[in-house]
Amino acid sequence: MQRGLDGRRVALYVGSLANKAGAGIQQALEQAGARVHVLTDDAQQDDFHGGVYAALVVVSAASANAPIVQLVREFMASDKPVAAFGDAVPLIVAAGGAPGRKVAADGGSSADLHAAGATTSDRAIEIDEALITATVRGDPREFAEAIVRQFSERLDERAVDEMSELSFPASDPPASTPSTAGPQAPHDEAR
User: Fold this and answer.
1) CB 6 within 8 A of CB 48
2) What CA–CA distance (Å, rounded) separates 90 from 93?
3) For residue 162, what pLDDT is reported?
4) Segment 29-40, tens digit of pLDDT
5) Which backbone phi and psi does 57 adopt, to 5 degrees?
6) What letter would DSSP give residue 49?
7) Residues with Cβ within 8 Å of residue 187, at least 6 apart in sequence
8) In a domain, 174, yes or no
9) Are the CB atoms for 58 and 91 separated by under 8 Å?
C-alpha cells in the first residue's frame, strides 16, 4: 500500500518565523497529507533530531547554526529525503553531504560545491536520488511539487525495502527441503 507523505512527519526549517519563503512548501506538503513541523533557530534542541522526521526541507540558512547542520548531516547519512532551497544549499556542504552529489548551484556557490566534491548543475531545480536542491531562481511552486512527488516516491520505496528486509533477513539460511536438495541416495535397509 502506497502512502507517500500521508501521515508522515516532515521537518521544514525556515530559520525565522518572519521568513515566509516556506509557506507555499508547507501548504503543498500538508495538502499531500504530511504533518509538517516548522523549525526555527529558536526551536528546542530536541526538535533537531532526525529520528522523529521522515524528511527534511530547508528553505533558509541565514544563520547556519549547529543544530540545523547536524540535522542535515543526520538525514544525509541515513539517506532520508532532504530538500534545500536557495541560500540553504551550502548547508549540504557544511553537513558533509556534498561528495558525489549533483546539486543545483548559482555562480557564487559553485566553487564551494566543487571543492566539497559535488557536481554542480545549472538547472534551477536538481534531483539527485534523496536530495533535491534549487537555486534562488528556482520557482518555489515547482520546487514544492518536486518535493511532494520525489519524497512520496522515496518514502514508499524505503518502506518497501524495510518490509522486504524484515520478511527476508540476510541472516536466514537458504530454504532446503528434500525436494530442493536434489536426488536422494537410496536408504540402506541393512543398517
Assistant:
1) no
2) 5
3) 63
4) 999 999 999 998
5) -125, 130
6) -
7) none
8) no
9) yes
Residue 180 above 60 pLDDT? no
Block residue for cell numbers 509538517: 36
> For residue 97, is it within any domain?
yes
CA atoms within 13 A on the CB side of 54: 25
Length of the chain: 191
Q: Per the structure, how many domains does the chain have?
A: 1
Query: Does a structural domain hold residue 184?
Result: no
The CA R_g of the chain, rounded to the nearest whole Å, is 22
- The CATH number of residue 102's host domain is 3.40.50.880
Q: What pLDDT band is residue 110 in, cutting at 50, 70 and 90?
A: confident
- Give Dmax (Cα) for the chain: 90
Strand partners of residue 9: 35
Domain coverage including residue 138: 9-167
Mean predicted lDDT score pLDDT of the chain: 83
Instruction: Give tens-digit pLDDT for 168-179.
Output: 555 555 555 554
Check: CB of residue 39 under 8 Å from CB of residue 13.
yes
